[in-house]
Automatic annotation (TrEMBL):
It comes from the Bacteria. Residues 16-240 form the Carbohydrate kinase FGGY N-terminal domain. Keywords: Kinase, Transferase. The keyword DNA damage does not apply. Residues 276-474 form the Carbohydrate kinase FGGY C-terminal domain. InterPro entries: ATPase_NBD, FGGY_C, FGGY_Carb_Kinase, FGGY_N. Pfam families: FGGY_C, FGGY_N. Belongs to the FGGY kinase family. This is Putative phosphotransferase.
């Protein structure tokens, strides 16, 4: 097997996917059987600079280079050959946000990530104008808010894109986006699989009195669907990704996608009535729809699969960040007591304790709002834990409360889909850090959604594997072969998976918690209003 993999590497019959997540940049190199043969990663974290959540350009490229070099080193150490040829390549990243460039390709303002809830005014105006939900995270919301704010850079705009689009552009020279990623920039016309021209015209008319030196269509990237070629790695791009100079140029790239689309691919949930949930720094659950929703819901994003099918998404900005902080506190305590710390053991012990908590979680309440939360109407976040005087304050209830709370805002959006819109969902596939402790995240998620939750053996590979699969699909698919057919027949035919069905007692427990969660939102509002960011 090792000899076969070595031959595939030398012949360039591999595909590489790199995804820039919120806390980690991950690279996955796959072989001809679509299984990972080398993985690399780079840890990073956003910074709050002048009230804006951002990552610097230097951090972006340093992280990409480090994650790529880790893959190259694994290839050299494990298979004894340098990584020079790659069959296909793809990039994905956290969706939405705002990267604005002038005619000289200079970044005009620091990258504004999805985490910024600073576009409420813009979001409301555009949602009403289009009769289509425009979340605060979307690129168009950031653009129009900058116009409303009369920011100086607006008159210098030449191109706006996302993080994935930026990386792809710098490596290929092509200003393109995959349709799934593009659906977080501006609404998509499901017939043309491109930006909705009627809404573009509406936007241009809206801003016409401001006499801007551009039309919206001049700023936006071209939209491509999965399977289309999106350019090739240039000489300069190869050196940018691999400063050692070993990586050869000319590698074909698939359209850059968002982490929503790559999550769908990595969980084989691109067909109707399938769904997936990604739970890590943020949590978003997605369902591929059979038809349009009856109403416009500001809690629900409408995006697309990488092939342009309509997807409803319930996206919460906050999931495991505050939960991880508490786990780290217990690790600190263990170290202070002179005990040897194994983080996997600590996570496993604490998460499994949550399954033993009381049905009413002991009356405890928490909000893991490290940043704002649009579903519940918060422009900023303040992590909060509170309990009544007669609460049952046990470690099991404490952990159960924080795990429930991590999914609270997302559940509010999914309840609209499943209970109000009556969307049909056969099962949902989970991936992300929440599911790393076997069984626990699945059981909690199944309770939240009252739907069976499946986790595949490749769940840990996540979106980086998903974008690698899209890169492989581009060069290996049969003529006119749909993406779902390719995934079913060549990737997931023999995939091992574990499914956990919702337990009625857990479902009832989660519903009880949600009553307290909703009733306690004014407490979180008071914390946001009165607890200053400065410490």
């Amino acid at each position: 097997m090792s000899q076969q993999i070595r031959q595939s590497i030398e012949a360039g019959k591999t595909s590489l996917g790199i995804e820039l997540g919120s806390t980690r940049i991950k690279a996955v190199l796959i072989g001809e059987d679509h299984n990972p043969i080398a993985v690399g990663s780079h840890e990073w974290e956003n910074s709050l600079v002048d009230g804006i959540w951002t990552y610097s350009v230097d951090e972006i490229w340093n992280g990409l280079q480090n994650s790529y070099q880790e893959v190259a080193q694994v290839v050299k150490d494990k298979y004894g050959v340098p990584l020079k040829k790659i069959g296909s390549l793809g990039f994905s990243a956290m969706m939405h946000g705002y990267m604005a460039f002038d005619k000289n390709d200079q970044l005009l303002v620091p990258f504004r990530t999805w985490r910024n809830n600073i576009t409420e005014q813009s979001s409301k105006v555009l949602t009403e104008l289009f009769n289509y939900n425009i979340p605060q995270r979307w690129t168009i919301a950031h653009l129009y808010q900058a116009i409303l704010n009369q920011e100086d850079h607006i008159s210098e705009l030449n191109h706006v894109t996302t993080l994935a689009g930026y990386v792809h552009w710098k490596l290929t020279g092509e200003k393109v986006l995959g349709v799934g990623e593009a659906s977080g920039v501006f609404p998509i016309d499901l017939n043309t699989k491109s930006f909705n021209q009627t809404m573009i015209d509406q936007f241009n008319e809206l801003v016409a009195p401001r006499q801007l030196p551009w039309k919206l269509e001049d700023l936006l990237a071209n939209v491509l669907v999965a399977g289309e070629h999106a350019g090739t790695l240039t000489e300069a791009g190869a050196k940018l990704l691999d400063p050692t100079g070993q990586l050869e140029a000319g590698v074909p790239l698939c359209p850059p996608e968002g982490d929503a689309g790559t999550g769908m691919v990595a969980t084989n949930s691109v067909a109707e009535r399938t769904g997936n949930v990604s739970a890590g720094t943020s949590v978003f659950a997605m369902v591929v729809l059979e038809k349009e929703l009856e109403k416009v819901h500001t809690e629900i994003d409408l995006v697309t699969t990488p092939t342009g099918s309509l997807v409803a998404m319930s996206h919460s900005n906050n999931c495991t960040s505050d939960l991880n902080a508490w786990v780290n506190l217990f690790a600190e305590y263990s170290e202070a007591m002179g005990m040897e710390v194994d983080m996997n053991e600590i996570y496993g012990t604490l998460y499994n304790l949550a399954l033993k908590g009381d049905k009413d979680t002991g009356g405890l309440l928490s909000y893991g709002y490290l940043s704002g939360e649009h579903i519940t109407g918060f422009e900023h976040g303040r992590p909060l834990f509170v309990r009544s005087s007669n609460s049952k304050f046990t470690l099991a209830n404490f952990m159960r409360t924080h795990l429930f709370s991590a999914l609270g805002a997302m559940k509010m959006g999914m309840d609209i889909l499943l209970k109000e819109e009556k969307v049909q969902l056969d099962e949902i596939l989970g991936h992300g850090g929440l599911f790393k402790t076997k069984g626990v995240g699945q059981q909690i998620m199944a309770a939240a959604l009252n739907t069976p939750v499946t986790v595949m053996e490749t769940a840990d590979e996540g979106g980086a594997w998903g974008i690698a699969l899209l890169a492989a699909y581009m060069i290996n698919k049969a003529e006119d072969q749909p993406l779902d057919d390719y995934l079913n027949k060549t990737v997931f035919a023999n995939q091992q998976a574990t499914t956990i069905a919702p337990q009625q007692e857990d479902v009832e427990s989660f519903e009880l918690f949600m009553e307290r969660y909703k009733a306690g939102l004014p407490i979180e509002r008071a914390a946001v209003d009165h607890l200053n960011e400065v410490y």
